[in-house]
């Protein structure tokens, strides 16, 4: 029988990781040359001063730190200027000027991206949309939200919660990332299994192109087959095709009955059996199926104040969420599923959250994995789609390779701490993480292109949800063929011929 879950005080702030070393400049750590862009002059700054108030123009070194360094402390740029427009019109004026002057620009949201896409590589101007932070409208009947791009994801969700709806995307960085940022990266998150991709839920976008043209495609219609669906090009374009300033998105009704169970399993085969069973037996109420290996759990335990949800240790754990509108019905379904899964020895141990605090605690335990894995110094991240039967083999093979190369150990001279795997297994999406004490070229060479070649051989994707950014700019060929890449380059050329938007990234 499943035990109930003792309430613990697991609360912990999602503080940015502490800095115990300075991050090297990306331009020095990687082989990349500055493009033929103009350099910022005093008269450019004067122009920006004529359209923005002084407090929305940052030039002070200290003020620039946050915008020049990424969340993983892996990439650092040397931008001298951050602009924080408050209106779409101001974004347009800024881009028009930059395009005419040939000044490179990096659009930035909450700066939580995990592929170095939001950070300048050299001295690009950072265009932060943080001040475009207003909800524009909400339709109570259809659930359609229209919002500025800089609204923080959690705030957008809180807003629609007040009307009985839920934002159709959730992820661990929700307290910092923006609605525009998640659209620009086509983030997947924790409930894609239930609510689908942003390519389906986003109904319209307002985008400013590199030359300052404002494209108003902010439709609030569910069905609209008039012409090419151009907004799709910008979803997942990571700031390379335009700056998203407004988003229209369909929000489903907020579930009133939610259950979360946390289970221990003996093998990845059992994880797959549990998934098949959950789909069949929980059916329409299944809203998340997350898996994590024991290595990732040990690291969360080590670096947070939290205790493991299960006292015994198992090779794998699964977090299952059900969401529906009839508590009794959902409870009965979950109970039957869990009883069957234990009788059939698919699951060996587990807990079910008894109230909303315990639900939040279990989710927090899952959501803190990325932060905990970075606490030792740094982390190499690979966010991949792989056919489920082979999915965990990648972690096993990478671990073996690193051990054989002699780079893994418990003492400070060894760069690699461990190899961990977790992710949205319900979506076939694995997060392979290699936490390190310091970033090290030898380790990087052992991992790349090995990981990408491995993925290509099983016809997987080298980027399931985080995007290409700077990290994977040279590797798209492992997942897309020449013809597709050439079409993509054509689109980029058409929309941003001078390539001022987010250079050195993507393709
Ligand atoms: P940024 O990091 O600022 O930017 C990301 C990219 O989008 C950059 O290339 C930038 O140029 C571009 N961009 C940002 N805003 C705009 C805009 N308005 N117009 C045009 N381009 C823009 N991702 C997932 O898919 N699933 C997860 O479960 C998930 N969990 C995460 C958990 C944590 C703890 C962290 C730190 C990150 C996680 N991510 C996840 C990564 C994810 O990509 C980001 O959190 C989020 O999508 C980025 O939003 P942001 O506003 O921070 O964008
Ligand atoms: C998650 O699922 C995020 O928690 C982050 O996508 C994954 O850090 C990672 O590798
Ligand atoms: Zn993820």
TrEMBL record:
GO terms for molecular function: D-lactate dehydrogenase (cytochrome) activity; FAD binding. It catalyses: (R)-lactate + 2 Fe(III)-[cytochrome c] = 2 Fe(II)-[cytochrome c] + pyruvate + 2 H(+). GO terms for biological process: lactate metabolic process. Its cofactor is FAD. Keywords: FAD, Flavoprotein, Oxidoreductase. Residues 75-254 form the FAD-binding PCMH-type domain. It comes from the Eukaryota. GO terms for cellular component: mitochondrion. The keyword Transport does not apply. The keyword Flavoprotein applies. InterPro entries: FAD-bd_oxidored_4_C, FAD-bd_PCMH, FAD-bd_PCMH-like_sf, FAD-bd_PCMH_sub1, FAD-bd_PCMH_sub2, FAD-linked_Oxase-like_C, FAD-oxidored/transferase_4, Oxid_FAD_bind_N. Belongs to the FAD-binding oxidoreductase/transferase type 4 family. This is D-lactate ferricytochrome C oxidoreductase. It comes from Geotrichum candidum (Oospora lactis). The lineage of its organism: Eukaryota, Fungi, Dikarya, Ascomycota, Saccharomycotina.
């Amino acid at each position: 029988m499943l035990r109930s879950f003792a309430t613990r005080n697991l609360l912990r702030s999602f503080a940015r990781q502490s800095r115990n070393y300075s991050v090297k400049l990306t331009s020095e750590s990687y082989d990349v040359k500055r493009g033929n862009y103009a350099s910022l002059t005093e008269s450019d700054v004067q122009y920006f001063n004529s359209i923005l108030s002084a407090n929305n123009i940052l030039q002070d070194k200290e003020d620039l730190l946050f915008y020049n360094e990424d969340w993983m402390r892996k990439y650092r740029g040397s931008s001298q200027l951050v602009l924080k427009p408050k209106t779409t019109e101001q974004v347009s004026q800024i881009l028009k000027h930059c395009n005419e002057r040939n000044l490179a620009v990096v659009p930035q949201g909450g700066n939580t991206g995990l592929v170095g896409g939001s950070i300048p590589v050299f001295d690009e101007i950072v265009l932060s949309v943080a001040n475009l932070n207003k909800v524009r409208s909400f339709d109570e009947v259809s659930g359609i939200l229209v919002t500025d791009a800089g609204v923080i994801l959690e705030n957008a969700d809180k807003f629609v919660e007040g009307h009985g709806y839920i934002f159709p995307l959730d992820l661990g960085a929700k307290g910092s990332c923006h609605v525009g940022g998640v659209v620009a990266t086509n983030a997947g998150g924790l409930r894609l299994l239930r609510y689908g991709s942003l390519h389906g839920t986003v109904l319209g976008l307002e985008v400013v192109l590199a030359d300052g043209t404002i494209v108003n495609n902010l439709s609030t219609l569910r069905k609209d087959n008039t012409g090419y669906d151009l907004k799709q090009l910008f979803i997942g374009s990571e700031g390379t095709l335009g700056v998203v300033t407004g988003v229209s998105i369909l929000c489903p009704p907020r579930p009133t009955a939610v259950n979360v169970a946390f289970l221990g399993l003996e093998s990845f085969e059992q994880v797959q059996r549990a998934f098949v069973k959950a789909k069949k037996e929980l059916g329409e109420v299944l809203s998340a199926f997350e898996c994590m290996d024991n290595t990732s759990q040990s690291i969360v335990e080590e670096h947070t104040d939290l205790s493991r949800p299960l006292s015994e240790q198992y090779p794998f754990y699964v977090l299952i969420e059900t969401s529906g509108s009839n508590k009794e019905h959902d409870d009965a379904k979950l109970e039957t599923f869990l009883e069957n899964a234990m009788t059939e020895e698919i699951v060996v141990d587990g807990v079910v959250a008894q109230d909303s605090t315990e639900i939040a605690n279990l989710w927090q335990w899952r959501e803190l994995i990325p932060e905990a894995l970075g606490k030792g110094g740094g982390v190499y991240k690979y966010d991949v789609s792989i056919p489920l039967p082979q999915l965990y083999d990648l972690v096993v093979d990478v671990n073996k390779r690193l051990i054989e190369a002699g780079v893994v150990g418990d003492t400070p001279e060894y760069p690699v701490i461990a190899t961990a795997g977790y992710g949205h297994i319900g979506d076939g999406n694995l997060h392979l993480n290699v936490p390190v004490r310091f970033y090290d070229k030898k380790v990087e060479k052992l991992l790349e292109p090995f990981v990408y070649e491995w993925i290509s051989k099983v016809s997987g994707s080298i980027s399931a949800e985080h995007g290409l950014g700077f990290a994977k700019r040279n590797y798209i060929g492992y997942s897309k063929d020449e013809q597709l890449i050439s079409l993509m380059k054509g689109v980029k050329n058409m929309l941003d011929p001078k390539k001022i938007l987010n250079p050195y990234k993507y393709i």
